[in-house]
Amino acid sequence: MLIVAAVALIDKTGCVLLSQRPEGKAHAGQWEFPGGKVEEGENVGEALIRELREELGIDTETSCLAPLAFNGEGDLLLLLYACRKYKGVPTPLEGQTLAWARPDEIFSYDLVPADKPLAAAVRDLLS
C-alpha cells in the first residue's frame, strides 16, 4: 500500500494553500494539498515536515500537525493533516504554482481525484 501524507496549510486569514501539479507529472494542471509519499522508515509527521521543506521551503513541527481526514482508494491511503503554525513563506520549489483559497473557493479548483473527498473536511474546518 502506498501511503501519502498531505497538509492543509492554513494562513492567518483562514485561507488554505493549494498547489498545482506541474507539467510532466501525473494529474498535471490539477490542484492538490501539498505533501508526498511516506518513505520507508519515516512516520507521517516526519514525511510531512520533509515534504514541506522540499516543496515549499517552510518548516514546522510534528506538534503543529493535526490529523484532519483520510481517503483510502485501492492501494493508496491519503492522510490529510491541518497545519496553522509554520516558519517561512511558502515558495514553489518544484515548478508548481501556488494559490491561497478561501474555504468557499476550494471546490472551484480542479482538484486531483484523491483530494476531492478531503476538500469538504477542510472547508468545514475553516467555515
TrEMBL record:
It catalyses: 8-oxo-dGTP + H2O = 8-oxo-dGMP + diphosphate + H(+); 8-oxo-GTP + H2O = 8-oxo-GMP + diphosphate + H(+). Its cofactor is Mg(2+). One of its GO terms (molecular function) is hydrolase activity. InterPro entries: MutT-like (IPR047127), Nudix_hydrolase (IPR020476), NUDIX_hydrolase-like_dom_sf (IPR015797), NUDIX_hydrolase_CS (IPR020084), NUDIX_hydrolase_dom (IPR000086). Keywords: DNA damage, DNA repair, DNA replication, Hydrolase, Magnesium, Metal-binding, Mutator protein. Pfam families: NUDIX (PF00293). The keyword DNA repair applies. Residues 1-124 form the Nudix hydrolase domain. Its EC number is 3.6.1.55. Belongs to the Nudix hydrolase family. This is 8-oxo-dGTP diphosphatase. It comes from Parvularcula lutaonensis.
